[in-house]
């Protein structure tokens, strides 16, 4: 499969609050700011209608062997500028853990993936090669910084 | 699930239990007590060592996740709610059936023409 050689940089902090998006237990809430550089031109062949691009964080915790959270996504239509140069992006979706597993977690991996939507045919899910590890701090952030 | 899919597109699904549910996948699920299945994308998963998984979905074109669609008090979907996984699609195929359902006059016209065709070709 063709690659997009995306490049992701990040910075992060963490708080512990009631998960107001659903379950009302106190859970870790992560804040990640990132840059994405990618050239998706080679993925757009004659049968590609659009790409659903997403940045996800994957990690393990005491509560759950596998956690995956989509932090940001974007629909890129055929004809849109395939070159992405995004800086200082905040995550689109709240990065709540199911528990307090972000605290001191050194192994949170960010990956850029995409779902190819053809004009007709198979819907492949592709993960970009190269991923970034985001170690979370041991301490909670107490001031509002987002 | 616009702009990827539109009403009338035909989706090809698989439903192998062994297939792990991962973010980015397009799943077809049914909410308890509701008849009509929903085709949305997996946004978040939390899976235990045992394989027990709870996950959250969201339609590509929606601003918010599907928690508002789930049952009262339900925050997550589980494997048992999944009816299939979208693997491929063909656009527009279902449009004729939809037109016939939405516009009965069109359905009668189609039936009439088919009937005519059958009569004319009876040699």
TrEMBL record, chain A:
Task: Show the InterPro entries listed in the entry.
Answer: SPC3
Q: Which GO terms describe its biological process?
A: protein targeting to ER; signal peptide processing
Main subcellular localisation: endoplasmic reticulum
Q: What is this protein called?
A: Signal peptidase complex subunit 3
Do the record's keywords include Membrane?
yes
Give the protein family. Belongs to the SPCS3 family.
- What PANTHER family does the record tag this protein with? MICROSOMAL SIGNAL PEPTIDASE 23 KD SUBUNIT SPC22/23 (PTHR12804), SIGNAL PEPTIDASE COMPLEX SUBUNIT 3 (PTHR12804:SF0)
Q: What GO cellular-component annotations does this UniProt entry give?
A: signal peptidase complex
**Matching Pfam families:** SPC22
Q: Which gene encodes it?
A: SPCS3
Q: Does the keyword Iron-sulfur apply?
A: no
Membrane topology is: Single-pass type II membrane protein
What is the annotated role of this protein in its UniProt record? Essential component of the signal peptidase complex (SPC) which catalyzes the cleavage of N-terminal signal sequences from nascent proteins as they are translocated into the lumen of the endoplasmic reticulum. Essential for the SPC catalytic activity, possibly by stabilizing and positioning the active center of the complex close to the lumenal surface.
- The domain of life is Eukaryota
Annotated source species: Alligator sinensis
Write the record's keywords in alphabetical order, separated by commas: Endoplasmic reticulum, Membrane, Signal-anchor, Transmembrane, Transmembrane helix
User: What is its subcellular localisation?
Assistant: Endoplasmic reticulum membrane
From TrEMBL, chain B:
What's one GO-annotated cellular component?
Answer: signal peptidase complex
Q: Which InterPro entries match?
A: LexA/Signal_pep-like_sf, Pept_S26A_signal_pept_1_CS, Peptidase_S26, Peptidase_S26B
Name the Enzyme Commission number(s) assigned to this protein: 3.4.21.89
* Membrane is among the record's keywords: yes
- Which enzyme class? hydrolase
**Main localization category:** membrane
Give this protein's Gene Ontology molecular function annotations. serine-type endopeptidase activity; signal peptidase activity
Spell out the subcellular localization from the entry. Membrane
Catalyzed chemical reaction(s): Cleavage of hydrophobic, N-terminal signal or leader sequences from secreted and periplasmic proteins
Instruction: State the annotated membrane topology for this chain.
Output: Single-pass type II membrane protein
Could you tell me the Gene Ontology terms of the biological process aspect for this record? signal peptide processing
Keywords assigned by UniProt, alphabetized: Hydrolase, Membrane, Protease, Signal-anchor, Transmembrane, Transmembrane helix
* CDD domains on file: S26_SPase_I
Q: Membrane-spanning residues where?
A: none
The family line of this record is: Belongs to the peptidase S26B family.
Q: What is this protein called?
A: signal peptidase I
Write the gene name.
Answer: SEC11A
